[in-house]
Amino acid sequence: MPEIDPTEHDIAELGPKIKDVDDADELQAMLELEEDGEDRVPVKTLIEDRIEKVESEDDGEIEPETVDLSDRTVADVANMVRDIDDADVLRDLLEREQAGEDRKTAKSQIESRIESVEGTEEAEGEAVTEVEYVPPEEKYPELDHPTNDKQWVEGTVGAEYRDMWVYCETQAGELVDVSKEMLGKARELMDTYNEEYNERERVVAVLIGADASDHVEEVIAYGADLVVYHEDPRLERFRHQPYTEIFCDMARAGGDLAADGREEVAWKDYHEPRYAVFPATNNGRDLSALVQGELDSGLASDCSGLYIENAMISNPAKVGTAGDKKEFERVLHMKRPDFSGFEYSTILCIDKPNRDFHPQGASVIPGSFEMPDPDYEREGEVVDYEMALDEDWFQVEVEEFDRLSGGVDLTGNDVIVAVGRGIGDDPTRGIEQALDLVNAFDEADLGLSRGVITSSYSFDGHVEQYVTEERQIGESGQAVEPDVYIAAGISGAIQHKVGCDESDTIIAINTDPDADIRDFSDYLIEGDLFEVLPQLTEAVETGELGAMMEASDD
Fold first, then answer.
1. Are both 289 and 428 inside the same structural domain?
2. What percentage of the chain carries pLDDT values higher than 70?
3. Long-range pairs for 544-551 at CB < 8 Å and ≥24 separation?
4. DSSP code of 504?
5. Using CA atoms, how far apart are residues 17 and 3, in angstroms rounded to an integer?
6. How much is the pTM?
């Protein structure tokens, strides 16, 4: 029986655990357990890939000249050719692949490495290979408005871009907390940016809605230099097309490429924003994708970190010459947990020689940045943006709806009690006990791991209302930083860590003393949450945990 039973974990939790297993026999036993149990294809693929990696490592160093490519996966081939600098050896590998398995992806990996090696050799000899550029009107002669990749967008090259734009979302007449957090971070970034590059670029707050003007002073207090807002009674509720059209029209107003008839405006003398950030809320995720698509740029979604630095890039598609390098300035580095759950990825949005990608765009997970202190003495410029809205954008009318009293905002609590898949033996009782502990504190609330949200657990009606996506903590949920974070039955995948690792004190409750959450917890209680939670509740009610609460800020 292997130490890890894959049927007890989802793939996000299993990934970080399995990468440390180096015994092929144990991995094979895990694979058999999965086949006899859940039989999930992604999990089996994960285990099989790990088996192949372990077995290849056991084989010792691979000799490219003699390796049997039929015994190697495409991933093995890609990893092998990465370290080969001899073009002749690579060509021999390519010929053997063509004569054998003839896998398209494997051949592409070898060909790309050949191109990279030969490009480097030529660059050293001062003979470089330029990437061929075909103008869009030649590439797409059948289109009326050709661009490099799409038909209905502006393809710009060499335009001027300035400022960081922040979409400030409101709900039920209030500026949501993540909007304030983004304004504070944008202020910090642009202050540093202006000092480093000797510029005077601004933080621009964008407000759209039926009560947009009500929030102008507040967004200035939280860091905006310029507020551009559009107010219309029809925009009381978020609507995809009008919100997208308004934001993009603002972004394209005036500017240095106004040959399409746009008039100059006093508040903006550049083509499009340099950077654009949005909240990673339900509405913000929709709007960010639509806006960035319409502006023909890219989007890094669900980010938890942002910083601006120069970046040295060698990709021929970006620098225009194989084997060459170029330093790109003022690049927004957008940090997010990658999909494997193993590590963070940093996303960059880089121009091509004949193609600009602006604004550099990101959506930000609520709670990722500190809440700034507002300064209501700050002054800023305000633009009441006038724009005719097409009636076709409002063909669907919502005649009646119920508004929730306030939703679930877990940020700002002193204590968060979060439960994970450890409640699986008795899900309803697990939620009940977590709520008992929550109620024992003055300022506390209930959080959930993604495993609970995506599970097929059956909950009794009186607790079912608490099991909603709004309470999810992690990379695709909320990020919290309470004084005390109690994680009961949560393994500690990196996606969850993103949402809670800024907490002052983390207390984990887990039957597995080697669970990943141990690595970033201050205290680990080895035990069954069904036994530990009631004891904690009693300790709080009798004041025995008071000393720890007072020390949590130290």
1. no
2. 83
3. 548/484, 548/505, 549/414, 549/483, 549/484
4. S
5. 11
6. 0.60
